[in-house]
Design a protein that fits this description.
Blueprint (H helix, E strand, L loop, with lengths): L3 E2 L1 H11 L12 H11 L2 E2 L12 H7 L4 H9 L5 E6 L1 E6 L7 H11 L6 H4 L1 H14 L4 H6 L1 H4 L7 H13 L3 E7 L2 E6 H4 L2 H4 L5 H16 L1 E2 L1 H7 L5 H13 L3 E6 L3 E2 L2 E2 L2 E4 L10 E4 L10 H8 L20 E7 L1 E11 L4 E9 L7 H15 L4 E5 L5 H7 L4 E3 L23
Parallel strand pairs: 1-8, 15-16, 16-17
Antiparallel strand pairs: 2-4, 3-4, 5-6, 7-11, 8-11, 9-10, 12-13, 13-14, 14-15
């Protein structure tokens, strides 16, 4: 087992652990989707749909073009094998893993539902009424509950938004689970209506759950610091994470390693290599990543691995954006070599490259490799052509290797699509 890794080796370890060291399959079916999901362990949800919803993107990045209807069957069915919970923020997890997050449900209960002045306590009537509606009628969309709310009220008048808040709190507490979606609107059911009874009957003790989650994060990352492992599942209890790491080292599952350039202050950062981690001699990947891909979602780790600094600019006024509304990191080989801001203009059937930029060290074939991914992305989204703007130092290079692509000026296709997410990250606005 290696004692030290160069930064390039660490990149290749991390990418191999996420599935980027293997060739894309010729045919993508349920087995391939499940395999990619198993390697990641979780799939972050984001509602921005300017190009493609974020939860579809990691599967495309790893597997290539696939039928998103297959993913929908896995993720949104009435009794799906995957469910949503606050894992790495709002994310899909295997339904069988629900019990691993009992400790988090307990933490949310202590934070949001125990104090007399908490929202759940001060709105107990609406919370109880929502519970009873789900118990009587089965899984429902908020609109289906709100439609009947006026007739059902017996006590003080409540706002329709209170129905949604009650559902969200009950979801965080583990009393409610997401029973699929219609479009992108959630259907909420009581946990026993969605989660298998055997899973509900087997909650995992806090220390055991954190140890298992750290183990899975270590496998998914390949090589990681304690901060990396904690962030994978957003575990805020550093002593518990370090205790889990110690247990896994004693069990031979993790091995201490030093990584070139990984520092804590002026000292080498403590890091660990998973026993099953591969250290490929080469990684020949090419992919466009969502900002919420595990490869880059922890910004500190992305800077350590790839010297890649990313800040999302959705909420930045257009005139002040540095790279674009929703720029996507570009992976070529074993490095992040650029970013592209993509938009699907479905009315015109055009994939718009709103901006494109190179990072340091982009290889000579970066434009050709990225062009191939853009053509694939257009086909995946059912778009007939590509148009490249003139904003960004990579746009002319792309246009040179894509002579069939049109060109457009910056801002030519800005419109109402560029809005904030239609469903903000759950919990961000909870009182």
């Amino acid at each position: 087992m290696k004692e030290t890794l160069s930064r390039a080796e660490a990149r290749r370890v991390a990418l191999a652990a996420q599935g980027f060291a293997r060739p894309r399959p010729e045919i993508v079916g349920t087995r391939q989707l499940n395999g990619a999901l198993a390697r990641m362990g979780t799939l972050q949800i984001d509602s921005v749909n300017v190009f493609a919803r974020s939860h579809y993107m990691p599967l495309f990045s790893r597997l290539g073009a696939y039928d998103t209807a297959l993913a929908d069957k896995l993720l949104f069915a009435r009794r799906p094998p995957y469910v949503e919970y606050w894992a790495h923020v709002a994310a899909f997890i295997p339904a069988a893993d629900w019990g691993l997050f009992r400790f988090r449900m307990d933490e949310h209960r202590a934070k949001y539902a125990t104090a007399p002045d908490s929202w759940v306590q001060t709105h107990a009537e609406i919370v109880d009424w929502v519970r009873s509606e789900l118990a009587t009628r089965g899984p429902l969309r908020p609109a289906e509950i709100e439609h009947d709310a006026a007739e059902a009220r017996r006590g003080p008048w409540w706002a329709w938004d209170d129905v949604k808040l009650a559902l969200e709190y009950l979801w965080l507490l583990g009393e409610v689970a997401i029973a699929g979606r219609r479009g992108f609107e959630r259907r909420y059911g009581l946990a026993e209506q969605v989660i298998p009874a055997a899973v509900l009957a087997a909650p995992v003790a806090r220390a055991d759950a954190i140890r298992e989650l750290v183990r899975r994060a270590a496998r998914a990352y390949g090589v990681a610091t304690a901060a990396d492992l904690a962030d994978y599942w957003r575990i805020r209890d550093r002593p518990a994470v370090l205790a889990a790491i110690d247990d896994l080292v004693d069990a031979g599952e993790l091995h201490p390693v030093s990584v070139e350039g990984w520092l804590t202050g002026s000292r080498p950062a403590r890091a660990w290599l998973h026993r099953d981690a591969a250290v490929p001699r080469r990684v020949e990947a090419a992919a466009v990543l969502t900002p919420f891909d595990p490869v880059v979602w922890f910004r500190d780790r992305a800077e350590r691995l790839f010297d890649f600094e990313y800040r999302i600019e959705i909420y930045t006024p257009a005139i002040r954006r540095r790279f674009g509304y929703y720029s996507l990191p570009v992976l070529v080989g074993d490095d992040i070599v650029g970013r592209v801001d993509l938009k699907a203009d479905r009315a015109r059937s055009i994939l718009l490259v709103q901006s494109a930029w190179w990072e340091h060290g982009a290889p000579a074939d970066a434009a050709e490799r990225l062009a191939g991914e853009l053509r694939l992305a257009a086909r995946w989204q059912g778009l007939e052509s590509v148009s490249i703007s003139r904003w960004g130092d990579a746009t002319d290079d792309l246009a040179r290797v894509m002579p069939d692509a049109a060109r457009h000026e910056r801002g030519a296709f800005l419109d109402a699509v560029e809005l904030a997410p239609e469903e903000p990250s759950t919990g961000a606005a909870l009182p």
